[in-house]
Amino acid sequence: MGRRRWAGGWLLVLALLLAGCDGGAAPFDPTPTFAPPSTRRPLPTLAPDAPTPLVSPSPLPPTIPPPTPEVQPTPLPSATRPPGGGPAPTLPGQGVELPRDIGFDGGWWAVLFSPGPSGNAANGQYIFDKLVGYIDAAQTSIHIAAFETNLTPVAAALARAHARGVDVRWITDDEHGIDADGEAGRGQFALLEEAGVPLRDDLRGALMHNKFIIFDGHIVWTGSMNLTTNDVYRNNNNVVVIESPEVAAIYEAEFAEMWGGRFGPRSPAQTGQDVLDRNGRPFVIRFAPEDEPLDALVQLAGLAEHSIRFMAFSFTHDELGAALRERAAAGVDVRGIFETFGSETIYSELTPLVCAGIDARQDGNAGMLHHKVIVIDETVVVTGSLNFSNNAADSNDENVLILADAGIAGLYLEEFERRWAEARPFLPAEADC
């Protein structure tokens, strides 16, 4: 199959979905189509190229309360939907209906959004408690590939898990993980090492930029959120949690490659990375650089017929920018939000897009808009750790998850509208077109 297998397989399925030729598939059934095996432990009911630019740490939040065993956060109360939010999308799973600015916590999956300074700090606490809850509930293994951390309670929870016999292992970036551990506010890797948790880093100039965790070989936590105070409470991020042994096996294979020292271009391209969710819709999983995921995103963008929405921490990839301009010229409604930091450099796609008549804005978050999200035709969602840049595509270790469902896409579109409402228009006059 090789590195160009995107021309077939699930890309064809996604193409059919985007083209409206999926045979009139029914909306996402809120009930799983099969029951998980009785031997599988259910999800606990508990309730984020270049690194993040160095900014002065915010005092937010004042404190992070230490976790307690068997965390059982109460579902947060209902919140008023944003103006113009429309009806709630049909969603899978028998889960917790959260305030719409948090996301949706299903019985076997979740999509969660960190609040940013304009949001409710309880959102970040919900995500934090959920993460610690998964750690405290783990029975056999916790495998982490995460760029950086400064969350001492998370490190403490992992040390507890290791002490009770759970196989806890962490792969991180050298410069921003292990080497940064002596900085003020850090020391979490030293805590883990003292507890006996095995640690490895990539020992190379490019980044180990993933943000994924695999619990017990069947739960995957991924998205754009670094395990840091800023990313949980201050920056705009998204987290996807999936209970699926098939999805977990794909991430475990990538984890094993990196644990064995195969980072970046030395990591072999995988096969069999396309699986069905419980409703028969495709999950497509790709890793950078070996699977060339940005090439796939260029192809997917070229399939758009109605709309493209994106939220980008870093967007400097010329081919993806050209694909968006081509679709806009063909009449597709393209809108996007850039993280302000770095968006006006000569490398950024902000000016070329605006000069092509595309409505693009700079984010209104005093912290960072850290999303790496594209939504195509209100149906297909692209998310993960991958910034839209050549470094991310060619050098860094990254992961991309592509989901084809209107319900999940609706959650991301709501997040887009929240960020759009606080973003600042970037006008052609400013772009010096």
Short description:
By secondary structure, the chain is of the alpha+beta class.
Describe the structure.
The chain has helices at residues 10-18, 121-137, 152-163, 174-178, 188-195, 229-234, 245-259, 293-302, 318-329, 350-355, 390-394, 406-422, 428-431, and strands at residues 103-105, 109-113, 141-146, 167-172, 199-201, 211-215, 219-223, 238-243, 274-276, 282-288, 307-312, 333-338, 359-362, 372-376, 380-384, 398-404, 424-425. The protein is α+β, with helices and mostly antiparallel strands and 433 residues long. The strands form two sheets. It has a nine-stranded mixed sheet with strand order 9-10-16-15-14-11-12-13-17, sandwiched between helices. Strand 1 (103-105) and strand 2 (109-113) form a beta hairpin.
